[in-house]
Amino acid sequence: MKMILGGLIAAAATAVLMTLSLATPVLASATVPTEAAVNRAGTASKDVGAQQVYFTWRNWLTDKCLDQNWSGGVNRHTAIAYDCHGGDNQFWQLESLGTNIYRVRNLGSGECLHQKYDGSTPTTTVQVLACTDANWINQRWRVTEWNDGSYTFKNVRSEWFLDQSFSGGVERQEVVAYPFNGGANQYWYWY
């Protein structure tokens, strides 16, 4: 009886975990982490004064950190998903530009997430370039919080989402902008 009951409990727990991991997040209030919430999280942020709080953002699916690529000590001006190591290139500030619209600035370089365009056509390339006038729409992201604690970053111009690439079903380091598909690789959380 104990063995059967234990097996049923384990099966039920597995079913719940599988359901939770496959569940589509539900929209919550559209907010970003507050300074108080960040301070509770410990290593989630670096406070560099004057209300300049920076967050590390981890991909919901892979747990990799949003990272400005400094391969070989050289600024590559690209966003990647990389093992979290606490370097300044993995901390990002959300600069409010209006209701749920932000510029995402890197602590290490002071540069901002930028979706590349080829003329008037959006590309999947997400760069990290000099922050420009707050009205430059390629650097504007609608940040939305979901009930499960995850966030999405939607480029205001293209309406494509920040996404850790899984081209051909294989995890890649590349962070891209991609039309919404509901994949967990398009959701992020701060830590």
Backbone CA Rg = 18 Å
pLDDT < 50 runs, ≥5 residues: 1-45
**Topology as a string of helices (H) and strands (E):** HHEEEEEEEEEEEEEE
**Mean pLDDT score:** 78
Shape annotation: globular
Category by helix and strand content: alpha+beta
Strand adjacency order, main sheet: 6-7-10-11
Q: Quick one: biggest sheet?
A: 4 strands, antiparallel
Fraction of residues in helix = 10-25%
Question: With helices defined by DSSP (H or I, 4 residues minimum), what is the helix count?
Answer: 2
Approximately what portion of the residues adopt beta-strand conformation? 35-45%
Question: If you had to describe this structure to a student in words, what would you say it looks like?
Answer:
- There is one protein chain.
- It contains two helices and 14 strands.
- The longest helix has 21 residues.
- The protein starts with a helix and ends with a strand.
- It is 15% helix and 35% strand.
- The chain has 191 residues and is of the alpha+beta class.
- A four-stranded antiparallel β-sheet has the order 6-7-10-11, with no helix packed on it. The protein has a two-stranded antiparallel sheet with strand order 1-2.
Question: What topology emerges from the helices and strands here?
Answer:
Blueprint: H1 2-22, H2 35-41, E1 45-47, E2 53-55, E3 57-59, E4 65-68, E5 79-82, E6 92-98, E7 101-106, E8 112-118, E9 121-129, E10 141-145, E11 151-155, E12 161-164, E13 175-178, E14 188-190
Antiparallel strand pairs: 1-2, 3-14, 4-5, 6-7, 7-10, 8-9, 10-11, 12-13
